[in-house]
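pasting for the record
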Amino acid sequence: MSETELSVICKNCGSEVSPYVTECPYCGARLRKRAPKLERRDGSLEAQRPKRRRRLLPRRPAVSWASGHKPYATATVILASAALLLIQKATGDSLATYGGLVVPLAGEWWRYLTAPFSYVDVGYLFVVAVGLAIFSTGVERRLGTMPTAILLLACGALGMIAATAVANAQGEFIVVGGGNGMALGAVAAWVALRRGETAGAIDQEYDVIGVAVAAVVLIVLPFFAPTADFVAGLVGGAVGGLAGLAASAYHSHSE
């Protein structure tokens, strides 16, 4: 055995021993769990070098988001809707008076923007407000106030446009109002952003069942709220999901 092989110092007795033994021959102290495998190199035996394993797929880095944003956009949407509902209940006027969408639309395009804030049912507003409070605040913490406000308006307005198009195609007269499209858009956007930031990490997964239940409740709202619309809700959810995917992809590439 060459002198360079005697390079391990026993921590118990201080003796210099071979790196290929598991116990000190002088004091019997345990040096390692197992002896290293040997290979012949240049006529002498040396410890095998550990082989580096290559990843077949690179691990995606988790997406980091700004977390200092206050939920001003979410609070504004909820408070504005509640204020309109209180005024509507106090005056007893129809939903159309306070921004509701009436189809056929008589050229009043601005109703696409106001209809998501118009309610005649307290229960409908409560369900939407809870959905926004849970999911829209999470979106706003990641994207910021202005992008979230634009996202919610886009989900609500595009949902109303789609509802109008379907009603016109079927020759129906409908009155639509409420933010089920905004709430479903917030749920879909939150899911897309959350999946992007976890990057497949098991310890960072979210409650899929809870999110699914929330989405189903918002989808079936038209069964219980006469001014809620299926098409508006589904289109709003699709818009939010696509926006969340786009934002997640942008952040992951900019990291």
